[in-house]
Each structure stands twice: as structure tokens, then as C-alpha cells.
UniProtKB/TrEMBL annotation:
Residues 3-242 form the Aspartate/glutamate/uridylate kinase domain. Belongs to the isopentenyl phosphate kinase family. One of its GO terms (molecular function) is ATP binding. The keyword Cytoplasm does not apply. This is Isopentenyl phosphate kinase. ATP binds at K7, L8, G9, G10, S11, G53, A220, K224. It comes from the Bacteria. It catalyses: isopentenyl phosphate + ATP = isopentenyl diphosphate + ADP. Keywords: ATP-binding, Isoprene biosynthesis, Kinase, Nucleotide-binding, Transferase.
Length: 266
């Protein structure tokens, strides 16, 4: 089975400059494009994920949840951040239901455990079973219970990296990982799109990329690049492309060439 991992970036489906502000019209359009692509090419097997955008990143920064907790305030903070992540997830999920997409929601907090931020328990068998039933698993960046520091946060980018490894080990062909955001790709310091990143130049790129001006506790573009380089070692390409451009998401899923940044082994 061939599988594509597709992320709806937080910058695409929310306004990151305004806390708790989703973009319902864009969410509707991008999901409609996904539905259209699936109708034209029914053999696409998709895992869908989305970012936290202007929802959980705000509260995660406030409570420092990625580094755990050691008091009641931090404990409540972890719960609050998880609830914020779920708010956006419910918005996306509701739109999926309106469009009659066969989406099955999976909370990462329910299939992962970490110890000092490192995963020591992960059960992707449920997600795999969903795929086998020709449904689309929907995951998202989430608060994860940590047996040592209380809690931490795992981004969709990290989850996709782990999932890609798992699926390959189970003999699935992971076609590519696609990140669609409100940007044309990864920009250098001069605002120019970097077309290709490989193992040979990624360290140089990390020193020259344009930083995000919005809260992102999981590493923003730097985090995306690092996770993409990890899976590139296994021959999996990552495309970072502009989801705000009408038709782009459908085109990418249908195998048409799209502008953006490609991250690969060489």
C-alpha cells in the first residue's frame, strides 16, 4: 500500500497573528480539494494531520508545557493546552463531516507516552487499521503524558516522522510527506524560497532561514527541516508548499508538480 502523509499547517488554517482564530473558509476549501483529489484518484491512501496555529501554541508558550510541569499550575496548563489543541481539531473534524470525508480522528495523547521527552511507548496499530479500512486517519500536534516530567508536546511534524518510519518498517510505501501552509516554501533571510534542501546543505540552510514572528513552541520551520532530513535518510521526500493557492493541494495529491521547497536525501 502506498501512503501519503499530508499536513494542513497552522499558518494555513488559522490566523497566527490573532489568538484562537480559525480560517473556516480556507479549511472548507482545502478539505474540498482533498475530497476532489480522492474522487479523481481513489487509490490515494492518506494520513491527514494539522498544526496548532493560533490555538495551542499560545497557551503552550504561556505554561511552558513542552518542558513539563512540577506544580499545580503547570499540571492545569498541560490540560489547558491539550484542550486548546482539541478546539482546533474539532473545527477541522466538523468540516470533514460536513463534506462527508471518511475521516477518523485519533488523539496522539492516546497512543503515545514519553519519558523525559523521548517516546518509549507508541502504538500505531490503530492508525494502521484505519488505513486498511480505507478511512483517513486525522492526527494533530498534542500534549503527551510524560512519565518523568509530567507532560510534553509532540508536533505533527514529529508524529509524521515517527509514522513514516513505522509504515516503512511494516512494508508500506510512503510516497512523500506534504506540508501545506500559508507560505510558498522555506524562505532564506532575503525572503527568497529555497527550492531544495538535502543532507549536504541543510545545516547551512538552518543558519539562513527567515525566523517566524509568531509563537511556535515546536520549532517552526527549523523543526520541519530537521524532521524531514531524518525521513530523507530513508528515501522519503518532503514537500513544503503553498496551500493558500487555490488548486495547489489537489494538484499535489494528484501527482502534479508544485512550487515550494523539496527536502530529500540528495
Amino acid at each position: 500500500m502506498n501512503v501519503t502523509l499530508f499536513k494542513l499547517g497552522g499558518s494555513l488554517i488559522t490566523d497566527k497573528s490573532k489568538p484562537y482564530t480559525a480560517r473556516p473558509q480556507i479549511i472548507h476549501r482545502v478539505l474540498l480539494e482533498i475530497k476532489s483529489a480522492l474522487q479523481k484518484k481513489p487509490d490515494i491512501n492518506l494520513v491527514l494531520g494539522h498544526g496548532a496555529g493560533s490555538f495551542a501554541h499560545q497557551s503552550a508558550k504561556k505554561f511552558g508545557t513542552i518542558d513539563g510541569f512540577n506544580n499545580d499550575k503547570g499540571k492545569f496548563g498541560a490540560c489547558f493546552v491539550h484542550a486548546d489543541a482539541m478546539k482546533l481539531h474539532e473545527i477541522v473534524l466538523e468540516e470533514c463531516m460536513k463534506l462527508k470525508l471518511p475521516i477518523f480522528s485519533l488523539q496522539p495523547a492516546s497512543f503515545l507516552l514519553t519519558k523525559n521527552k523521548k517516546v518509549y511507548f507508541a502504538n500505531f496499530e490503530i492508525l494502521e487499521a484505519v488505513l486498511k479500512k480505507k478511512m483517513i486517519p486525522l492526527i494533530f500536534g498534542d500534549v503527551i503524558i510524560d512519565t518523568q516530567i509530567g507532560a510534553t508536546i509532540y508536533s505533527t511534524d514529529k508524529l509524521f516522522s515517527m509514522l513514516a518510519n513505522y509504515l516503512q518498517d511494516k512494508n508500506y510505501a510512503v510516497n512523500q510527506i506534504i506540508h501545506s501552509g500559508h507560505y510558498k516554501g522555506i524562505y532564506d533571510q532575503n525572503g527568497k524560497v529555497i527550492k531544495k534542501i538535502t543532507k549536504q546543505n541543510y545545516l547551512q540552510v538552518l543558519n539562513t532561514i527567515k525566523p517566524s514572528i509568531h509563537a511556535d513552541v515546536t520549532g517552526a520551520m527549523e523543526g520541519k527541516i530537521k524532521e524531514a532530513i531524518k525521513v530523507a535518510e530513508r528515501g522519503i521526500k518532503t514537500l513544503i508548499t503553498d496551500g493558500s493557492k487555490t488548486g495547489q493541494i489537489a494538484d499535489v495529491l494528484l501527482g502534479k508538480r508544485a512550487a515550494g521547497t523539496t527536502i530529500s536525501k540528495d
